Amino acid sequence: MASSLTKDSADRGTPGDERTFFGHPRGLATLFMTEMWERFSYYGMKALLPLYLVAPNGLDLGAAATITITAVYGSMVYLLTLPGGWIADRFLGPRRTVAVAGVVIMLGHLTLALPSAGVFYLGLALVAIGSGLLKANISTMVGHLYDGPNDPRRDGGFTVFYIGINAGAFAAPLAIGTVGERVNWHLGFGMAAVGMALGLAQFLLGSRHLSERSDIVPTPMPAAEKSAVLRKALLWLAVPVVFYGVVGLSGHYTVNWAVIPVTLIGLIVPIWVIARIKRDRDLDTAEQSKMSAFVWFFVAAAIFWMIYDQGASTLAVFASESADNSVLGWEFPVSWYQSLNPLMIMAAAPVFAWLWVWLNRRGKEPSTIVKFSAALLLIGASFFLFLAPLAIAGDGEKAAALWIAGIYFVQTLGELTLSPVGLSVTTKMAPVKYASQMMGVWFLAVSAGDSVTALLSNEAVGGVNLDRAGFVAVEATLAALAGVALYLYRNKVKRLMGDVH
Q: Region Disordered: what ranges (predicted)?
């Protein structure tokens, strides 16, 4: 029996495995490669999306519609992480959910590769659904490879895993972006499908090295409850099908009939979820207090992501129309700008990690609240910087590529100050009852921020020109004021956090 268990441990990549991946369980190599290729497909498509939407030989939409659609898509990816986690918890387990997600993402990219505008939005929906399913579960499976939270290899394992994310994100615009812009848009989307296919193949072939815990459905749903849930799901699905069928047959359908409701869902659901947790009477006084503190961080993050995610929409559209995208006379594809952030992340993340430790040893590490405040000031500064190339373009000249690169650099500094810290503080402040759900709640800040962007830019709702100096200055000022306000109220938030530091 002991011999059998040892062999199973070695095959599954659990702790104690003698064959390792840079000193980590072999299953980490499977998840590393799967996530790298999935991010390759996701960021490649994301780099092409706004450019294809606005291009005369693409869908030829205006800047406002392009920014709206890109923001709605981003909002849905993060909103769908909640049902993605629920499906794994109640129906399939993480491993099977990720396998299904890979298939759905690949089909979505294949649909985008079809030279037909009629199925384009279906392809976007499939990629968003698949990404939500995968994002909610693959990080969980990385954690399953280790012997609990105190395994000394655990933090290093996640670091290696995130290198895979950024490696895929860096390479994608260079490869997929070049083909999409210089050869054919749909061939570029097809390359994204190939990337996901490689990731799915890697996952299926290497799944035997994953932990057995990844196969377990944590809280399986009884048969009777499954039937009831299925009936309710079909009923709720029938409502929009009938409604949009009537609207379509009557000849009144436009894309806003779908975009506006989805955008409102992306804004309302985060508010509803947090309010539901906050009102839960099962939470004790300390947990209620921490949830009140979490609201401050959530709002700050929503403001941050509202501006940050415009790097892939507003800033990308500006670069395609008004920037001199060349270095020393050599012109590069606009999509290449999207490789700057992952490159900067890989270069700067170790520096930030060292800096926090160095300051901590001297008792000078900024608190979480101060870090969030700094992140808001940095994201505001990035849009104040954006005013310079906007002014240059307003005079009829092309803005230099270095202006665009500078904006991404400042935004990356803000991301490193807020994103890892936000993930950490979320796990620390999560009520026991919602411990497994709070990470999904944290991602809803992205949905909320992107939904605000979509509503503002939508010509049928806000009608705001987000790529104009006036509103860019308003957004920059809002972020700066939010950062100052958070800093001024830091003592109040600290008291609400209780024993969390």
A: 1-21
